[in-house]
Amino acid sequence: MPIQTVFLDAGGVLVWPNWVRVSDALRQHGVDAPAATLAAAEPAAKKRLDSSSLVQATNDHQRGWTYFNLVLEQAGIALSDATDAALRELNAYHQQSNLWESMPDDVPRGLAALRACGLRLVVVSNANGRLHHLFERIGLLDAFDYVFDSHHEGVEKPDPRYFEIALARSGASAASTVHVGDLYHVDVVGARAAGILPVLFDVADLYPDADCRRVRSLTEVAAACTEWNA
Asked: I need a surface site. Which of 177, 182, 188, 229 has the fewest CB within 10 A?
């Protein structure tokens, strides 16, 4: 069956943490952590987070703040009371506005390429209830046919029930849908459990042995869909 629908994760695919804001918060507490250093450390830190045992033992909120500590460690910054204080302030901001507020320049181009393929676009994200607010604030909400925030659905990836909710409400079928996400044990495992073809968003090429299609941009997703529908 041809691919008709693309499910997209939000964080790590469409939007990233605002590392300038993170760097500024740390500096206010006497911690020198340049934004570029944090951004460079992020992919390897996220890979450390992406383990089956950790995903099974935690929820998305717990992993989210472990993630920031791993980024700091990967960047060579010692964890301390000062880093904890900065992260608490950032967490408070995240609960109100969503810290994942940086959208790379190539995202609109990639979404346009997917639309040009005639695909339905659906966001299926583990989030904190502020995803719609964030997308509206950064001008991204109208780019999608549906946006699903796990906080509102009461279930999160990798639970296949979340994907099944998104399929039913968007009118998509598992057989004609792909899901693009950046965490193997959350996105790939969850999509497969729901009968959806997984695509791993691997911008730093850290998953060479992954047993699924890997891409480094949304335009590569569009190219893959064109290939599958040929």
From this structure: 229
B/e letters for 139-155, b = 16+ CB within 10 Å, e = fewer, are: ebeebbebbbbbbebee
- Angstrom CA distances, 47 to 43, 71, 207, stand at 6, 10, 9
pLDDT per residue, tens digit, the chain (230 aa), is 899 999 999 999 999 999 999 999 999 999 999 999 999 999 999 999 999 999 999 999 899 889 999 999 999 999 999 999 999 999 999 999 999 999 999 999 999 999 999 999 999 999 999 999 999 999 999 999 999 999 999 999 999 999 999 999 999 999 999 999 999 999 999 999 999 999 999 999 999 999 999 999 999 999 999 999 98
Beta pairing partners, 215:
201
